[in-house]
Amino acid sequence: MNMINDKLKMKDVITLSIFNIAMIVIMLVTKICTMMLTTPAFDYLFYVGIMGLLCAPIFVVMSNKVAKRGTYLITGIFGGLFITVMGSPWFLPVMIVIGIVCEIIMMGEDIYRNPKRNGIAYSVYWALYALGSAIPMFFFKEQYLNSLKDSYTEEGIKTLVRFYGSWDMLLLIVVITIVLSAIGFIVGQKLMKKHIEKAKLV
Asked: How confident is the model at residue 2 (pLDDT cuts 50, 70, 90)?
């Protein structure tokens, strides 16, 4: 893929936007379900990983269809805007940085169609997403916890601190997220080869 063909065109941006909106819907439904139907411990440990698992088939098709630099960055921007709308504007610059990190991982020609490299970047994306959720606990903890007092119970705040305020729990969250994201990517890759590529949609 040469430098000219590697640049995003308007149709690519539209494609990325449509697929990212679909992923945001999945993310929203996932978060609502884990909050309402599971325990707080399960929610904190698994919700990002489940997002990565369920969004993977869509991302695999999207990244192979567009297959150009900027795919992860735009995905990060959409993810950051979603979290901003949900009430955490500080997460947007975090997601932009995550997108840039993944773009660095994906440097090279026609690399988006390399399932190993793309799978690694995808897992890194969600692992950093999970870590990014804990940033307030380490940089503006007191201000952050005070802002939650109106919407969280005292027990809820203690649970949040337990999972996002300790490195051992964060490591566990990251491991779970990487495993689930990788599984999702592998499944997505197989589904794409079985159905999408045969239909010549990618």
From this structure: very low
Q: Mean per-residue pLDDT for 182-202?
A: 81
Could you please report the per-residue DSSP string of 104-135?
A: HHT-STTGGG-HHHHHHHHHHHHHHHHHHTTH
CA R_g for the chain = 17
Nearest CA-CA partner of 43 in 175, 156, 166: 156
**Could you give the angle at which helices 40-66 and 115-132 cross, rounded to 10 degrees?**
140
DSSP string, 134-147: THHHHHSHHHHHHH
How buried is residue 106: exposed, middle or buried, by Cβ count under 10 Å (0-12/13-18/19+)?
buried
Per-residue pLDDT tens over the stretch 6-18: 788 999 999 999 9
- Digit-coded pLDDT (tens) for 76-118: 999 999 999 888 888 999 999 999 999 999 998 778 889 999 9
DSSP track, 71-87: HHHHHHHHHHHHHHHTT
What single-letter DSSP state applies at residue 38?
S
Say which amino acid occupies 125. Y
| The pLDDT of residue 1 is above 70 | no
Residue with tokens 């999945």: 26
d(CA 181, CA 202): 22
Helix (H, G, I), strand (E, B) or coil at 35: helix
